[in-house]
């Protein structure tokens, strides 16, 4: 990680492909040395449980030790 | 902030931000799922979603701070664009003070600067002053410098976030 943590944002709600897009963004952020993801509309513009699941999917990228710095 | 949620202790952050209620109007933001017209549900989603913190408005956090300030970390988004007036404006204006954010239990404040816009000079000065006060109160600061896909490092931010609003 650099001196200033870089958090990427999720972007607008895009439908069913959102989980894939968000996970991809998280992988890019993590591999680039970023510090995390801030994801709003993708999480709250869908049913509550699916929103929580999407947030967990993002967090799983950061918990997964096989996803490393590029 | 690094010690809460599913990512506690990893050095990474997962944050739920909801300021679109002002920025894009509540109708545009919450029509897809009307339960979030009640801001308590935003906090419930952040908790259920295992986030380190939730970032939203003075009003939303203030309404429920007694019930949730000790359950999920608060980040107050202190400035917003708003589409509630006509004709539309494209400016980030402060909606409250850092001390007010601190008083409702927030651990950090976030603010946007529209780099490249005519108003960015004024916004920078406003937010630099606000962040100075936040730091003096022991709070972290987060700023999304919104430019088209470009992230500009700012010397006074604890963290920066890159995005397209």
UniProtKB/TrEMBL annotation, chain A:
The answer to whether UniProt assigns keyword Ribosomal protein to this entry is no
Give the signal peptide range.
Answer: none
Q: Which Pfam families match?
A: DeoC
- The answer to whether the entry has keyword Membrane is no
Keywords (A to Z) from UniProt: Schiff base
The EC number on file is: 4.1.2.13
| InterPro entries the record matches | Aldolase_TIM, DeoC/FbaB/LacD_aldolase, DeoC/FbaB_aldolase
Please give the PANTHER family that the UniProt record associates with this protein: FRUCTOSE-BISPHOSPHATE ALDOLASE CLASS 1
The similarity comment for this entry is: Belongs to the DeoC/FbaB aldolase family. FbaB subfamily.
Instruction: State the name under which the record lists this protein.
Output: fructose-bisphosphate aldolase
TrEMBL record, chain B:
Q: Which domain of life is it from?
A: Bacteria
This chain's protein is named fructose-bisphosphate aldolase
Species whose genome carries this gene: Nibrella viscosa
EC nos: 4.1.2.13
What the entry lists under PANTHER family is as follows: FRUCTOSE-BISPHOSPHATE ALDOLASE CLASS 1
UniProt keyword Aminoacyl-tRNA synthetase, yes or no: no
- InterPro entries per UniProt: Aldolase_TIM, DeoC/FbaB/LacD_aldolase, DeoC/FbaB_aldolase
* Sorted UniProt keywords: Schiff base
Annotated family = Belongs to the DeoC/FbaB aldolase family. FbaB subfamily.
* EC class (word): lyase
């Amino acid at each position: 990680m650099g001196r200033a943590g870089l958090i990427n944002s999720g972007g607008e709600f895009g439908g069913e492909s959102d989980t894939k897009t968000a996970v991809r963004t998280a992988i890019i952020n993590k591999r680039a040395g970023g510090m995390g993801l801030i994801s709003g509309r993708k999480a709250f513009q869908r049913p509550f449980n699916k929103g929580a699941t999407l947030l967990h999917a993002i967090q799983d990228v950061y918990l997964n030790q096989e996803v490393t710095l590029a | 902030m690094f010690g809460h949620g599913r990512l506690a202790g990893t050095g990474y952050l997962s944050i739920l931000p909801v300021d679109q209620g002002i920025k894009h109007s509540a109708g545009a933001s919450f029509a897809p799922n009307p339960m979030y017209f009640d801001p308590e549900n935003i906090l419930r989603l952040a908790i259920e979603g295992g986030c380190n913190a939730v970032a939203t408005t003075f009003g939303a956090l203030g309404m429920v701070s007694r019930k949730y300030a000790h359950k999920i970390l608060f980040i107050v988004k202190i400035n917003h664009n708003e589409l509630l007036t006509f004709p539309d404006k494209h400016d980030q204006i402060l909606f409250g003070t850092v001390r007010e954010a601190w008083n409702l239990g927030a651990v950090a404040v976030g603010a946007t600067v529209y780099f490249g816009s005519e108003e960015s000079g004024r916004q920078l000065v406003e937010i630099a002053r606000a962040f100075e006060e936040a730091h003096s109160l022991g709070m972290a600061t987060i700023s999304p410098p919104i430019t088209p896909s470009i992230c500009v490092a700012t010397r006074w931010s604890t963290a920066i976030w890159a995005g397209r609003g």
